Amino acid sequence: MSVRRLIVLSALSVFALLGASACTVEGAGTKTDCAVSGCTVTFDRGVNAKATILGVDAELVAVNGNTVTLKVGNQEVSVPAGDSRPADGLSVQVQEVTSDKVVVKLSTGITAS
Question: How remote is the C-alpha of 70 from its chain's centroid?
Fold first, then answer.
């Protein structure tokens, strides 16, 4: 297991123990909503949008039709809308693609009990 994945899993475990249910962070071209199970990032299209989720950078690289290319950590991944792919220890799911935004869920597989 990579050090980065251990850090992410540890941070999410702390959130679960402390009862943190959700948080929202807005940055340049992004809005991030996080819960124990992962984070949903809304990227604005047409800008250089990047979000940091528990120490892992996620950047919108390109959109070609309904396929979104993201750089997650050090890995580039292309994901069709409605589908998911693994990237840098996270599951990346593209939930929505419009002319204005791209909505992506990044999750670790941890769930609140």
Answer: 10
